[in-house]
């Protein structure tokens, strides 16, 4: 039996089921839920998309999530070692480790731009603090009731995002602060770093999220938001399904949001104790992540509709026009601050999870003794943090418009238009490559590996479903549904990839 291979020397573990579930939810809940979900839902027409998205989460995402977790736990060690051991135990080729390398590359690639976007959120939180301080300075404590940017005109407010993108120094500073905090947490390890961050930040996040959505539903256009999110237009749905893009967007969003295909949940599975039920934990994570996306929709869309903004605003929705809403409501600066703090917390618990994949690899194998592994975690994480920072600087610079006033940084602008990247900025190119190609490829390989390479008795034992029919349902989805649907998306993703 290969039961618990590598577990004996596994010194890093979650302190319990609750800690693991919180950390996994922390990874899943992030910019994907707060920014990406509202705009993909907005782009894809609202309710009809939400329906397909739910299907994608529970029929495709959830079985793959369970598969990643059990591969990690059964293999043990590091992400690559875990796959190697399982492949060997089941007589399969060692080249399955490619699956781990793809995931590692995807996690690393995502965190390089994720940190830059998180830096924008952090900058906005900082701006709100300055605004509140100014209001209090001018009007005493009553100033706390002021809207954000009182007295500034609409163009000035929405123009703030463009101004940020034209300020490489600001983008680099806040990206630097964010990645420094992330690096510090990751050097502290699984229990003392990642788990502690999640147990502190996630409850505050949930509190702010619920509070903001209630306020938004009260002061915004609740009817329009609820109709938009939950009343599917079946006529439109039928047309969209023929076109295929809704399905592709839904599965892509499910993968991104559940942190799948990046070897990340596989890595979190390595630290998972045998007494935790993978099906139960994975189901909790899927429900929480989906719930947060929907509640985030309820926080964003009522104000979007009340202030006549476009639902399909993309990144610009959160970083531009939403500021206008904060400008037009009482206590707007305070709400704005709460919103951006909440978003930074969510981004932080996701960024450290992405960071942990290369960090776990860097700290080395089980054959090292505990002290050596501990040292290597610190040194490895710091080196990876520096690399993320440097590549992030290029992402930030690739956002700077050519006609921005700063000529020194404009001389870097060619990085935004390298021949291989075509018309896209570096950030868009890495986002497209990871999201449309690497994550679906990782997910496809996980499904095939878990469904065909790992023996049936091994997956049944490791998953430990209480009922045989649930196991059979999982096996059917992982063998037939996931590879076919994800494979189709992959073919499409490569078609639109930035090559
Ligand atoms: N799931 C996180 C989010 O929704 O923001 C971030 C993320 C993690 C995306 C891991 C992709 C990924 F592979």
TrEMBL record:
It is a multi-pass membrane protein. NCBIfam families: Na_transp. InterPro entries: Na/ntran_symport (IPR000175), SNS_sf (IPR037272), YocR/YhdH-like (IPR047218). PROSITE patterns: NA_NEUROTRAN_SYMP_3. One of its GO terms (cellular component) is membrane. The chain crosses the membrane at residues 18-39, 45-65, 98-123, 172-190, 202-230, 250-273, 285-309, 329-357, 378-397, 437-455, 476-499. PANTHER family: TRANSPORTER. This is Sodium-dependent transporter. Keywords: Membrane, Transmembrane, Transmembrane helix, Transport. It is found in: Membrane. It holds the Pfam family SNF. Signal peptide: none annotated. Coiled coil: none annotated. It comes from the Bacteria. It comes from Parvularcula maris.
């Amino acid at each position: 039996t290969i039961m618990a291979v590598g577990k004996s020397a596994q010194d890093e573990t979650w302190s319990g089921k609750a800690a693991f579930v919180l950390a996994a939810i922390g990874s899943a809940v992030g910019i994907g839920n707060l920014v990406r979900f509202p705009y993909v839902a907005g782009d894809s027409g609202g309710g009809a998309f939400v329906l397909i998205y739910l299907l994608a989460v529970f029929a495709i995402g959830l079985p793959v999530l369970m598969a990643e977790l059990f591969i990690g736990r059964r293999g043990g060690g590091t992400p690559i070692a875990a796959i190697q051991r399982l492949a060997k135990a089941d007589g399969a080729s060692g080249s399955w480790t490619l699956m781990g390398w793809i995931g590692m590359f995807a996690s690393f690639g995502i965190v390089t731009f994720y940190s830059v976007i998180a830096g924008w959120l952090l900058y906005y939180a900082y701006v709100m603090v300055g605004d509140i301080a100014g209001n209090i300075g001018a009007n005493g404590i009553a100033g706390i009731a002021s809207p954000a940017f009182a007295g500034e005109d609409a163009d000035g407010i929405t123009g703030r995002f463009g101004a940020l993108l034209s300020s490489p120094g600001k983008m680099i500073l806040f990206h630097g602060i964010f990645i420094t905090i992330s690096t510090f947490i990751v050097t502290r390890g699984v229990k003392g770093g990642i788990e502690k961050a999640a147990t502190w930040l996630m409850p505050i996040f949930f509190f702010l999220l619920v509070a903001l959505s209630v306020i938004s539903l009260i002061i915004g256009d609740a009817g329009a938001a609820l109709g938009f999110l939950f009343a599917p237009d079946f006529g439109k749905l039928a047309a969209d399904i023929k076109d295929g893009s809704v399905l592709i967007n839904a599965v892509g969003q499910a993968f991104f949001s559940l942190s799948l295909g990046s070897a990340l949940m596989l890595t979190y599975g390595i630290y998972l104790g045998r007494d935790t039920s993978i099906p139960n934990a994975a189901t909790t994570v899927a429900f929480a992540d989906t719930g947060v996306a929907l509640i985030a929709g309820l926080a964003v869309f009522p104000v979007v509709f009340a202030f006549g903004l476009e639902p399909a605003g993309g990144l610009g929705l959160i970083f531009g026009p939403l500021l206008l809403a904060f400008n037009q409501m009482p206590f707007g600066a305070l709400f704005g601050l709460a919103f951006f703090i909440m978003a930074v917390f969510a981004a932080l618990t996701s960024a450290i999870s992405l960071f942990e994949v290369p960090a776990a690899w860097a700290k080395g194998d089980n054959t090292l003794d505990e002290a050596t592994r501990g040292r290597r975690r610190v040194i490895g994480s710091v080196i990876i943090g520096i690399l993320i920072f440097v590549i992030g600087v290029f992402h930030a610079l690739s956002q700077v418009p050519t006609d921005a006033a700063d000529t020194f940084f404009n001389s870097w602008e060619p990085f935004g238009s390298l021949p291989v990247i075509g018309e896209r900025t570096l950030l868009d190119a890495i986002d497209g490559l990871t999201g449309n190609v690497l994550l679906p490829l990782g997910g496809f390989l996980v499904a095939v590996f878990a469904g065909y390479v790992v023996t049936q008795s091994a997956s049944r034992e490791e998953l430990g479903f209480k009922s045989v029919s649930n196991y059979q349902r999982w096996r059917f989805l992982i063998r037939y549904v996931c590879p076919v649907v994800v494979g189709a998306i992959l073919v499409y993703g490569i078609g639109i990839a930035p090559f």
